[in-house]
């Protein structure tokens, strides 16, 4: 089999993402350091995997073609580096070298060989079986929801379900939720045009991170779910991942009761104030600020974690203020991690946000001022 591309950039479009997702570290299976290129009745495609997630791209462009049916299994990292370094605007050819575990890349005067393995030994992952659920979502909305959610998930928590994003469908509404036990992010979107069964799955946060870094031209993403896997079909891309086998906590139990104690502030302005105060808290493992709610403003003061009290003039006092609209008197101070607040504000889709409070021990609810399709919770410090 010989593969031809009009130039190296077109070949990179075809193989780049796959090469980036080939990884043997999770399984110790060396074959996962390779990518599998196949040309058969269904067309030309490239496959990569790390054992838990797999990436398949079908070639739909005329700029990359294969001369006959066959398969090549190439060292992913070397293939990517070689293609990226080739002369620009010059045709590229790739073919196996007879009787050697090598493939030859030809481009202009360049002749570069890349290690191969027997394509029949590559551990391909079969198509999704026992499909229980399938629905379609707008690609931009889904990717945006995932991005606004995954910041709140755990990364290396011993509780595996906290290192995941929960995706749930209820009454034709899609919910995406993440939490690490200290904060929570939840986003929702109505699914129009089809009837969707109720379901809940837990997607590993590292898989979500890979998916949200992708960019395709197709308007919609197809989502297929089985007992232990989910498959995202986005244009010419098929991305599969294993699911986390665990029970997700009932987030309704941590949502605070509706409260009239609400402050509305400029989202960007609040982030700027918090970033200034973080300068004064440099080096703190768990930085803390006290929010004092006045008639038309919120005053923020740094808190010294070692002494357990507000800082004084000899301890680099940090104090700032932001204008706010207070709907009802908030008769208490609220202590919170400013980094958590910044994360929540950065992932709230509106110019103005509402901060709802119940008492000093309940989480702060942060929502857009114009709609409630997104919410973020931040747990307070106990004082």
Automatic annotation (TrEMBL):
Single biological process term from Gene Ontology: DNA strand elongation involved in DNA replication
Gene Ontology molecular function terms on file: 3'-5' exonuclease activity; DNA binding; DNA-directed DNA polymerase activity
Keywords on record: Cytoplasm, DNA replication, DNA-binding, DNA-directed DNA polymerase, Nucleotidyltransferase, Transferase
CDD domains attached to this UniProt entry: beta_clamp
Cellular location(s): Cytoplasm
Subcellular location, principal: cytoplasm
Domain DNA polymerase III beta sliding clamp N-terminal: 11-126
Quaternary structure annotation from Swiss-Prot or TrEMBL: Forms a ring-shaped head-to-tail homodimer around DNA.
Family assignment from sequence similarity: Belongs to the beta sliding clamp family.
Protein name from the UniProt record: Beta sliding clamp
Organism of derivation: Photobacterium carnosum
């Amino acid at each position: 089999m010989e593969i031809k591309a009009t130039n190296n950039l077109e070949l990179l479009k075809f193989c780049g993402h796959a090469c980036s997702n080939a990884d043997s570290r999770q399984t110790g299976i060396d074959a996962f350091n390779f990518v599998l290129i196949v040309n058969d009745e269904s067309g030309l495609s490239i496959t990569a995997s790390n054992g838990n997630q797999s990436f398949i791209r079908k070639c739909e462009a005329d700029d990359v073609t294969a001369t006959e049916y066959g398969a090549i299994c190439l060292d992913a990292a070397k293939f990517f580096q070689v293609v990226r370094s080739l002369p620009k605007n010059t045709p590229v050819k790739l073919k196996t070298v007879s009787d050697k575990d090598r493939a030859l890349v030809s481009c202009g005067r360049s002749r570069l060989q890349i290690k191969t393995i027997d394509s029949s030994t590559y551990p391909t992952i079969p198509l999704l079986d026992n499909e229980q659920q399938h629905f379609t979502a707008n690609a931009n909305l889904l990717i945006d929801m995932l991005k606004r959610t995954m910041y709140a998930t755990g990364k290396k928590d011993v509780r595996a379900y906290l290192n995941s994003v929960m995706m749930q469908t209820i009454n034709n509404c899609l919910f995406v939720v993440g939490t690490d036990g200290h904060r929570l992010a939840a986003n929702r979107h109505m699914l129009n045009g089809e009837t969707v069964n109720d379901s809940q799955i837990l997607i590993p946060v590292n898989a979500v991170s890979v998916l949200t870094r992708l960019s395709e031209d197709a308007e919609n993403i197809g989502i297929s779910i089985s007992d232990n896997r989910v498959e995202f079909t986005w244009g010419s891309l098929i991305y599969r991942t294993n699911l986390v086998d665990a029970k997700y906590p009932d987030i309704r139990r941590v949502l605070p009761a509706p409260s009239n104690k609400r402050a509305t502030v400029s989202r960007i302005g609040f982030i700027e104030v918090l970033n200034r105060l973080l300068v004064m808290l440099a080096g703190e493992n768990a930085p803390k600020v006290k929010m004092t709610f006045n008639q038309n403003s919120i005053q923020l003061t740094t808190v010294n974690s070692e002494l357990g009290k507000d800082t004084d003039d000899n301890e680099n006092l940090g104090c700032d203020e932001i204008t706010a609209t207070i709907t009802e008197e908030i008769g208490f101070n609220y202590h919170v991690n400013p980094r958590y607040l910044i994360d929540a504000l950065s992932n709230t889709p509106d110019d103005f946000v509402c901060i709802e409070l119940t008492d000093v021990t309940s989480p702060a609810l942060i929502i857009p001022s114009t709609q409630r399709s997104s919410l973020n919770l931040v747990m307070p410090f106990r004082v």
